[in-house]
Amino acid sequence: MKFVLLLSLIGFCWAQYDPHTSDGRTAIVHLFEWRWVDIAKECERYLAPKGFGGVQVSPPNENIVIHNPSRPWWERYQPISYKICTRSGNEDEFRDMVTRCNNVGVRIYVDAVINHMCGSGNPAGTSSTCGSYLNPNNREFPAVPYSAWDFNDNKCNGEISNYNDAYQVRNCRLSGLLDLALEKDYVRTKVADYMNHLIDIGVAGFRLDAAKHMWPGDIKAVLDKLHNLNTKWFSQGSRPFIFQEVIDLGGEAIKGSEYFGNGRVTEFKFGAKLGTVIRKWNGEKMSYLKNWGEGWGMVPSDRALVFVDNHDNQRGHGAGGSSILTFWDARMYKMAVGFMLAHPYGFTRVMSSYRWNRNFQNGKDQNDWIGPPNNNGVTKEVTINADTTCGNDWVCEHRWRQIRNMVAFRNVVNGQPFANWWDNNSNQVAFGRGNRGFIVFNNDDWALSATLQTGLPAGTYCDVISGDKVDGNCTGLRVNVGSDGKAHFSISNSAEDPFIAIHADSKL
Ligand code: AAO
């Protein structure tokens, strides 16, 4: 009996659903297209001190080099080999990043592109980030090596055209990308070797790109071949954290739940619906968020990886549509990210982007392909300005005070129950997390003025949205909580950030 209990405890703590963050840290950040040398520095100078749990990095394996358009971000989703060799850096730089980040308690999660290789229409040659040969027409990738019989063309060599047909979605080509035959043990072994190489270096887990386009059983067969995490940083027997990119907004053949056995899934309803609510589209109101999470038809919290926007839907790729909020809509975006980080649902990922010149024609951004800030294809350094924001067109949303402080809020309230919900039947809402934190939003077109039960101990707290607690003082608003746990809040509808958040560590 005791043994069974112990086993199930181990299963819970060390399994593929656990991100293995240190000190109970609760959020990760996607440093989209960053170089490994910049991520290593960011772990040490910012992410560790601010309480971030980890980083999702762009695919580290060799990819095709596309010249028309010039070096798009999406070339990294067209693998040529499993050498660690991209515009983000080489294997030495990758190893150095993983070591330095782990040493300060920040984990690295790799975006693993294992469903396919490059697009079928690309010419043969050596246009790849490490110079490896490719011949898409013959389906030859000698640097792996893969050849014609390692692909699914015998099942389907056309495009996915019908998302109501699971067979097509998993055997045909996604956007013309050559679809690997993951039912073959040879292919599974090559993929697992790549992932094990990364695990041995010290990564904590993987985002499985295009998981919806792979059979859950094939993914499981690959995962079963994976090593435990490196015991230099992780406890014995730890399994890699797995989150699978499965877009399930409802109404298609494939359901996110089919993938729960393998790990977590990306919950795309989260950002699409939260964007609709904060934009007040379709008659949505923040008061409806009272039962946010499973109550809105989302997957169970302990199976969800959640985010407001991702690298696809912030530029019109993937799914979610026009309701998705991004840094371009900064005021609403900060509220959405603040809500996500305050709410107990799901494991949270913050997006960190670069700026590009958008060019909308008939509602579509013609520049949705533009790659990271660069000089002739060489990715620019992430420079840090005197005010701690980033230069060189790196947006660094994760460094925005409101977002960075809400990551800290989430850590402080970790494990505390959702509590003390209040709303005005419209777009003024508030809720707390046990007796550790409280947040109030005003997304109405009129002022908020209310005395609310915060659940917090009496005292003076610094609002972490308008400022910080510095040397025993608040640089922004103060909130006084009485001995009955109540506090008065006033939020103008024209405030720069119409929300207030206080927590145990922001108390004076
Ligand atoms: C590039 C070129 C292509 C070219 C290809 C090969 O753009 O023109 O044919 O190379 O030469 C990224 C880019 C692609 C790029 C690719 C490779 O986004 O443009 O192709 O790299 O360089 C589907 C997948 C999902 C995928 C998403 C983009 O299911 O896995 O498309 N995301 C990942 C990555 C992404 C990457 C890849 C996969 C490939 O995050 O960056 O692509 O490695 C429906 C389906 C979704 C489907 C979308 C879009 O969604 O449900 O599964 O996502 O369609 O096809 C409403 C619906 C919603 C629907 C949505 C859009 O919201 O409710 O269900 O509308 O119709």
TrEMBL record:
<feature type="domain" description="Glycosyl hydrolase family 13 catalytic">
    <location>
        <begin position="26"/>
        <end position="410"/>
    </location>
</feature>
<dbReference type="GO" id="GO:0004556">
    <property type="term" value="F:alpha-amylase activity"/>
</dbReference>
<protein>
    <recommendedName>
        <fullName>Alpha-amylase</fullName>
        <ecNumber>3.2.1.1</ecNumber>
    </recommendedName>
</protein>
<dbReference type="InterPro" id="IPR013780">
    <property type="entry name" value="Glyco_hydro_b"/>
</dbReference>
<keyword id="KW-0326">Glycosidase</keyword>
<keyword id="KW-0732">Signal</keyword>
<dbReference type="InterPro" id="IPR006047">
    <property type="entry name" value="GH13_cat_dom"/>
</dbReference>
<feature type="domain" description="Alpha-amylase C-terminal">
    <location>
        <begin position="419"/>
        <end position="507"/>
    </location>
</feature>
<comment type="similarity">
    <text>Belongs to the glycosyl hydrolase 13 family.</text>
</comment>
<dbReference type="GO" id="GO:0046872">
    <property type="term" value="F:metal ion binding"/>
</dbReference>
<keyword id="KW-0479">Metal-binding</keyword>
<keyword id="KW-0106">Calcium</keyword>
<dbReference type="InterPro" id="IPR031319">
    <property type="entry name" value="A-amylase_C"/>
</dbReference>
<keyword id="KW-0119">Carbohydrate metabolism</keyword>
<keyword id="KW-0868">Chloride</keyword>
<keyword id="KW-0378">Hydrolase</keyword>
<dbReference type="InterPro" id="IPR006046">
    <property type="entry name" value="Alpha_amylase"/>
</dbReference>
<feature type="signal peptide">
    <location>
        <begin position="1"/>
        <end position="15"/>
    </location>
</feature>
<dbReference type="InterPro" id="IPR006048">
    <property type="entry name" value="A-amylase/branching_C"/>
</dbReference>
<dbReference type="GO" id="GO:0005975">
    <property type="term" value="P:carbohydrate metabolic process"/>
</dbReference>
<keyword id="KW-0873">Pyrrolidone carboxylic acid</keyword>
<dbReference type="Pfam" id="PF00128">
    <property type="entry name" value="Alpha-amylase"/>
</dbReference>
<keyword id="KW-1015">Disulfide bond</keyword>
<dbReference type="Pfam" id="PF02806">
    <property type="entry name" value="Alpha-amylase_C"/>
</dbReference>
<dbReference type="InterPro" id="IPR017853">
    <property type="entry name" value="GH"/>
</dbReference>
